[in-house]
Amino acid sequence: MKISFINSPNIGKYRELKKYTEKYWKNENIENYKNFLMIIKKIKIEKIFFQINNNFSNIILGDFSIYDSILDISCLINSVNSPILINKKKYFSFARGDKNILPQKMTKFFNTNYHYIIPNNLNNLKLKNNFLIKDIIFLLKNGIKPTITIIGPISYLYLCINKKYKFKNLFEIYFLILKKIKKLGIINFQFEEPILCSKINNNWKKIFFLFYNNIDLNFCINSVFKINLDNISILNNINCIKNIIIENKNLLKNNFINIINNNLNKTNILYICKFINNDYNFTIENCKFLPYNLNIEKFKDKKYLSFYFQKINEIKLIKKIFSNKISSYDLLYLINFKIYNNKIFIKNNFKKITKKRNKLNLKLFTNNTIGSFPQNKEIKISRKQKKFCLINKIEYENILKENIYLCFIKQIKLNYKILVHGEFERTDMVEYFSENIEGINKTLNGWVQSYGTRYVKPPIILNINNSNNITENWFHFSKSITKKNIKIVLTGPITILKWSFFNNELKFFYCLKLSDIISLEIFKLQKRFNIFQIDEPTIKECLSINKNIWKNEINNFLFCFNNSTKFIKINNEIHTHVCYSLFNDIINFIKKMNIDLLTIESTRENFENLKIFNFTKLNLGAGIYDVHSPIIINKINIKKNIYKFSNIINPSKIWINPDCGLKTRNWYELNYSLKNIKEILLEIKNIF
C-alpha cells in the first residue's frame, strides 16, 4: 500500500512565515530580506523531508506559497502584465500595491474563507519568474524526484475576470511550463481543478478535453473539494489520465486514489479497512487549511478530533494494519475510537421574521467606520501578560478601557457622528465570541491562513449551549464616557459558523442556536443603544459550491440571520458588513435580509461591483480606500472614489467609510488616511 498527501499547511508550525514576512514589510533592508528568504527555504525543506521521513510514495512540490497560490501562477505566466521579471520583492506589489502599482482585485476562493488575487489579463503571457524551476533543481541535486502540483489551467481560467476566448493563450503557456519541467526529468504531475465541484456547462467540458487529452505525462487530477457528480463524465473521458483523486471508487472507470477527508473528525479507520485492499494508493485530501498539531491543545473534546499531524498518523496506521505491524498503542487507539455525537436541542416556537422598511440616510455622506481600530503594542503585550498571569483581569481591562477612551477622542476629532468602541478586547471577531459560548472549543495554536499573512484560529464547534456576557460590559462602559451615538458591532451567526470547524450535517442547527445567542445579546443592549451592526462577511461562502441546493440553504441561512435581529426595535438601525464577495448570485438573499445599511469592499473592484445594488433600497457604504494595502490614500484619489461611488449609487443612500480591517494597519497610517477623508467630506458638504 502506498500513502501520500495532496498538500500541507504553509505557514510553519509556529507561524514563522507571517512573522518574518511582516518584519520584512516593516523594514525592507537586506538583513530582513535574507531572513525572509531563509524562513521560506526552511518551510519548503520541512515539507519535503516530512514526506520522505513518512515514506510517502509521491513527494509533492509546488503546494507552498509565500502569499497566495493563485497569485503565484499569475506572476509565473505574467497575467499581472509586468514588463520586467518578477522577483519576490515585486511579487508583493501585485498583492498589496505600492507607489506605482495598484493592489489587484481580491475575492474568496469558492466557498472558503481563503482570499485569492483575481487574475485579470491573459493577453501577453510569458514566463516571468523561475521560482518553481529553482525548487525542482534543488531537489534533483539532492536526489529527490518530486511530483509537481499546480493549479489546473481550467480552474485558473474559471477564476479569471477576462476569460472569454483566452484559453488558447493560457494552454500554450501551460504546455511551455510542462515542457520545461519535463526537460528536467520530471514526468509526474498533480493538477488541482476545483472547478469540478461547480456546475459547469458543455463549453467548459470541451475545454477540459482539449487540454488534458493532449498531455503526454503521468498525472492525476485533484478536485480539492467534493466533486459535483455531474462532472464525473468529464473525468471518465480523459484518455491519458493515470489517477483521479476522488472519494467514491465506483464512479470512475479509471484507477483512483482513496481519500481520508480533510475535516477535523478522526478518520473511521475500521470502516475504511472493510472496503479496501493492499493495492490502494491512500492519500489525505487538501490539508492546506488544517492546523498543524493537536497534541499541544488542552480542550477536553480533542480526543474526538485530529489535526494535520494526526491525519498522517492515521494514514500510517492503515498501512500498518495491512502489513500486520500494529502495536499495542495502535490497538489502544482503535479501541478508544469514538465519534462525538451529542444531541442538539432546538426550540420549535419560531416565528417568521418579516423584513422592516429601510430608512433613508438622513445625513448626506455620513462618515463612519465598519468597526475595528489598530491594536497597539501595549494591548498585545498586556494580553500576553494576562495569559501568563503577569497582570490580573482588572489591570488588563483598565488598559483596554483607556484605549477605548482614546479611540473615541480620535473619532470625534475626525467628525464621526456614529462611534465604534474599537473592538480592543477582541483578538479575532469569531474567536472572541466563541470564547464566551459554552460548547465551542478554542485552540491554542490552531492557526490557518485566511489571506496573505492574515491567519485565524477557527473555533471547533461540537455543541452550542448558553453564552456568557459577551459584549454587554464593554458597551455599557463605552456609553458611560460619551453621549454620542455608539454603533454596537456583533459577529453574525453565519460567520461564526463558517469561520469555525464543525460537522457539516448539523450546520443549520448550529447556525440557529448561534442566532438565538446573538439575538439575546442584542436584547440586553436594547435599552441604551439604537444602532446595531451584525457582521456577516461570509454570506456567499456559507453556501455550497453546488448551486443546485442553494435555494434551501439560502432560506435556512436567511432565517438564521433574521432570527438574530428579532429583538431589534422598528425605529432602530440595522447594519451588516460583507467583504470581498461577488454579489450577483446572492443579491436576492441580501434584499431579504432585515437590514438598513450594507457596507462592502469596493476599492479594489473600482466600484464596478456596486451596479447590482441600484436595484435595492439599501443604504450602502462602499469603502473609500483599500485598508489591506499599505498605501496612504491622498485627497485626489478620495475625491475620485467618492465621485465614482456617487455616480453609481444615489447620494441619498451613500455612507462613507474605509474598508474593513483597520486593525491590520497602524495609527500612523490611519491618522493620515482618515484625516484626508474628513477634509474632503467637509469640502463636499460645504458645496451642498
Write a compact overview of the structure shown.
Helices cover 38% and strands 12% of the residues.
Task: Give the SSE map.
Layout: E1 2-5, H1 16-26, H2 30-53, E2 60-61, H3 69-77, H4 88-96, E3 106-108, E4 115-117, H5 131-141, E5 147-151, H6 153-158, H7 167-183, E6 188-192, H8 202-212, E7 218-222, H9 232-236, E8 243-245, E9 256-260, H10 269-274, E10 281-284, H11 308-323, H12 328-335, E11 366-367, H13 377-387, H14 393-413, E12 418-419, H15 429-435, E13 440-441, E14 448-451, E15 454-456, E16 460-461, H16 472-480, E17 485-491, H17 493-498, H18 507-525, E18 531-535, H19 550-564, E19 573-578, H20 587-591, E20 597-600, E21 619-621, H21 635-648, E22 654-656, H22 667-687
Parallel strand pairs: 1-10, 2-5, 5-6, 6-7, 7-8, 8-9, 9-10, 11-22, 12-17, 17-18, 18-19, 19-20, 20-21, 21-22
Antiparallel strand pairs: 3-4, 13-16, 14-15
Biggest sheet record: 8 strands, parallel
In the predicted model, the low-confidence regions spanning at least 5 consecutive residues are: 242-261
Instruction: Work out the number of β strands.
Output: 22
The number of helical runs is 22
How does this model look, in words?
By secondary structure, the chain is an alpha/beta fold. The radius of gyration is 26 Å and the shape is globular. It starts with a strand and ends with a helix. About 3% of the residues have low confidence. It has 22 helices and 22 strands. Strands 1-10-9-8-7-6-5-2 form an 8-stranded parallel sheet.
